[in-house]
Amino acid sequence: QVQLVESGGGLVQAGGSLRLSCAASGRTFSRHAMGWFRQAPGKERYFVAAISRSADSTHYADSVKGRFTISRDNAKNTVYLQMNSLKPEDTAVYYCAAGFQPISTADGYLYWGQGTQVTVSS
What we know:
Elements: E1 4-7, E2 10-13, E3 18-24, E4 33-39, E5 45-51, E6 58-60, E7 68-73, E8 78-83, E9 92-99, E10 109-112, E11 116-121
Parallel strand pairs: 2-11
Antiparallel strand pairs: 1-3, 3-8, 4-5, 4-9, 5-6, 7-8, 9-10, 9-11
């Protein structure tokens, strides 16, 4: 069992930056790939980024490539999402998730956090 808690969301102006964190409980964090997803009101949950267990592989949605960076610190049981050049369309609730492969489909993840709100004003 892995429990995930996101933090770092907030209100930011377009062009600004935020760094989200996701802290995991338990001693199995390093055995899991991690992903970030986001969901805007009235929309489905979409893939944002994923990272492999050892951080040797990362994947991004086309909409965030070059602006967002996913990273992890296995010693701290934490995964991060650095978000730069934010746009109003990035506004959503951001969720972190743990699974066995760094894939882009939500069904492939076993554990989910409660989400953190990111709002980008124009």
